[in-house]
Write a structure and sequence with these properties.
The protein is mainly beta. The protein has 1 helix and 10 strands.
Length: 187
Amino acid sequence: MKYIFLSIAFLSSIFIFGQNQHNIIKAGINFANISSESRSFTTRISFHAGFGIENEFSEQFSLAPEVLFSSQGAKAKNGSSREFRLNYINLPIMFRFYPSKGFFLEAGPQGGILVSARQSSDGNYDSNVENIKGQDYGFNLGLGFKSESVIGINARYYFGLRDINDYEYGEKLKNGVLQISLSFYIN
């Protein structure tokens, strides 16, 4: 039900007309990790890419829904070479505030749909992970700069709020991702 609401909100925001509307193509690097109650994980470096629309309502406020493919997960910290690759289609809806020309602060909810969950050991990616929930949701906080031309850069941190562990009696696992993006704005 939550993802139906997020999808409707995303599609509805496409038709909201502000003073200016810009299409966004973006890609960047992820520094992903999983928080756990008892296990230790280290950062997994991966990528994200996608598109969005920024609707400007005034010189200071805008709404920017996006659709991103995001490769997340973590590495096991216990000395083994185990790595968890969790690939999501994420739908962030970012509210942006421009305190000065070009610079912005952003915050907003995000829903994600798990596309694949794989585990590797010693470089072999042959093991599916069956105990990860198919959806994730959380909250983003970030900042960035949008030039007067067509290029922008931003950094955003995603705080996963949903326990993604699908074992009934398992420990709580939550995603956390730092994203650094390069964006291209198309009028």
